[in-house]
Amino acid sequence: MVRWGLLLSTLLSVMLGTLLSSPAFAVSQLDARLDKNPVMLGESVLLEVTADSRLPANSINFRVLDNNFTVMVPSVNQSTSVINGDVSHSTTWRVTLLPKASGEFTIPAFTVENVSSEPITIEVMPVQQGSGKLRDVFLQSKLSSSELMVQQMVYYDVTIYFSGDIQRGSLSEPQLEDALIQQVGQDQEGTDLIDGERYRSITRRYAITPQRSGEFTIVPPTFTGDVIDRESARQSYFARSRTIVREAEALPITVQAQPRNYNGDWLVAGLVTLNEEWQPEQAQFMQGEPVTRIITLSAVDVAANQLPELNIELPDGFRVYQEQPQVKGAERAGRLVAQKVITSAIIANTPGEFELPEVKISWWNSQTNRLEQTVLPGRTVQVQANPDRTSPVTIASEPAKSDTAPASTPPQPVSDWRWNYTSSALLTGWLLTLALLLWRQQLLSRKRSRPLPLGQSVFDSKALRAACRTDNKAAARAQLLLWARQQNILSQGSLSALSQKVRPGAFKEQIEQLNAALYSDSAANWQGDALLQAWSDYQQSKQPVTNKGDLPPLYPE
Questions:
Q1: What is the fold, at CATH topology level, of the domain defined by 132-256?
Q2: Which residues in the chain are classed under CATH 2.60.40?
Q3: Which helix (H) or strand (E) holds 69?
Q4: Is the pTM above the cut of 0.70?
Q5: Which of 12, 171, 301, 515 could be stapled to 270 by a disulfide with Cβ–Cβ 3.0 to 4.6 Å?
Q6: Cis before residue 126, ω within 30 degrees of 0?
Q7: What is the CA 520 to chain-centroid distance, rounded?
């Protein structure tokens, strides 16, 4: 009995395999239909085409609809059924269409193996005709400006309005050829009254920066999600969900080229400012003492990587040690703000009066559509001579002979050759020493990433205490970085990097407060006593507890 059952199942499997592997029947019918008609602009419509045969997926080309619709990727389903020995095949294409404009359009007939479907006329109603009818989900988009200059940032807002419950959803980004696109800030939620109906809304903002001029159309974003079916929710406690696809309207944009008479780095912004800060702030400079200069370039409606380099010049007699510029961007009230901070240590070598030249930057004002210049005014500085600076070394002349020398002793002739030989030997030795010092200085400069602002290379605890007690922020910063290098905590970097290296506590907080006081006007009244106490406690906590019975190290440091 078991053998007969096994044999019967084998025969059925062979027959079914033969039927499935047999060639498909010729196409005799091709049907096309829409899930709804008419449709509102911004809503999607599902086109379904069914053939009574097994066909390849590429048998129908839906690209013929591109002129009037945005065509999503089609899905293909093939099936075979056997009923009372009769075999039937079918192939179904399902594709989502998003109308590009309102009006009446014709979906043409599709033809496969000389069999054609019937053309379909679809009516797309504008959004204004939807008043009084509550819509489940629809999108709206807008631009801050439709006419702009090349590399000018424009803001693109897309808002999703919905009246029901969205289980899940995703929103694609807008697309524009040869443009930089980035999201600005977080999504904003709210409620709006449209056509007399209350809708919940989610607004997302993008910053679009075109890189070439011309006429373009922004490809709008598409929302795909699942919403609760209202009809099933009224009839059953277990409501079904349905998938929807919505698209915002396409917006044209005109991008103008850069003016031909414009010279310099091209920068388009809503506002550009230049500010400077001196630390310490003083009317006169002291010869040989460093002063920190901080220049800040800020621009509105500009990405951080668009900020140009600044041409900062100083007269002869000044040495400048410039740090790596700090560039950052942020979002303020829905607009992007970029900032570049240039910190330099300036040392005056020569006393006198000097004129620091102005710093100027040219830019195109996107608000007034004209060329403007932002200028950081020049400054006249007085450099006082430093009495502590040593004077250059001079070779003393030979002392004069005493007039009381005995007359009987004839004067000894002085050999010019011996004096010249001695002078040459001294000069050669001095030059060799100078060359050795310069060579050693070059080796030290290669090991350091940049010169220290205060020109010091060794940490001095007395200097740190003096800086903290006199509230000298720049000197305290320099000594802390020297201390970090001596302790092998930080080979190079800034106070921000040092605060990341020390463990959490009072010392870490004081470092961050000092860093904020250096670069923020709101923390100008900085007190160094707290930093000195926190540093002393940190030093004390790092010292290990030693045992008196332990032997001293073999190689003490």
A1: Immunoglobulin-like (2.60.40)
A2: 25-129, 132-256, 268-384
A3: strand 69-71
A4: no
A5: 301
A6: no
A7: 22
Cα 534 to Cα 465, 505, 530, 531, distances in angstroms = 12, 9, 6, 5
Are 146 and 156 in contact by the 8 Å Cβ rule? The answer is no
* 3-class SS of residue 378: coil
Domain 268-384 CATH assignment equals 2.60.40? yes
d(CA 107, CA 126): 19
Q: Report DSSP letters for 321-363, one per residue.
A: EEPPPEEEEEEETTEEEEEEEEEEEEEE-S-EEEEEPPEEEEE
Neighbours of 226 (CB within 10 A): 15
Q: Give the helix ranges, DSSP H, for 492-550.
A: 495-501, 506-519, 529-542
pLDDT by residue, tens only, the chain of 557 residues: 545 555 556 555 545 554 444 444 578 888 999 988 888 777 788 899 998 888 888 888 888 898 888 888 888 988 888 787 777 888 999 988 888 888 889 999 988 888 888 899 998 887 654 445 567 888 999 999 999 999 999 999 999 998 877 878 889 999 999 999 999 999 999 988 887 778 889 999 999 999 999 999 999 999 988 887 665 545 555 567 788 888 888 899 999 999 888 888 899 999 999 999 998 887 788 888 889 999 999 999 999 999 999 888 888 888 888 888 999 999 988 899 999 999 999 998 889 889 899 999 999 999 999 999 999 998 888 888 888 765 433 333 344 444 444 444 444 444 444 445 555 666 677 677 777 777 766 665 554 444 444 344 678 888 888 888 888 888 888 888 888 888 888 776 778 778 888 888 888 888 888 877 776 544 456 888 888 888 888 887 765 544 444 444 434 44
Please identify, in words, the CATH class of the domain defined by 25-129.
Answer: mainly beta
- Could you tell me the two tokens for 208? 């679009």
What is the C-alpha separation between 137 and 199, in angstroms, rounded?
Answer: 9
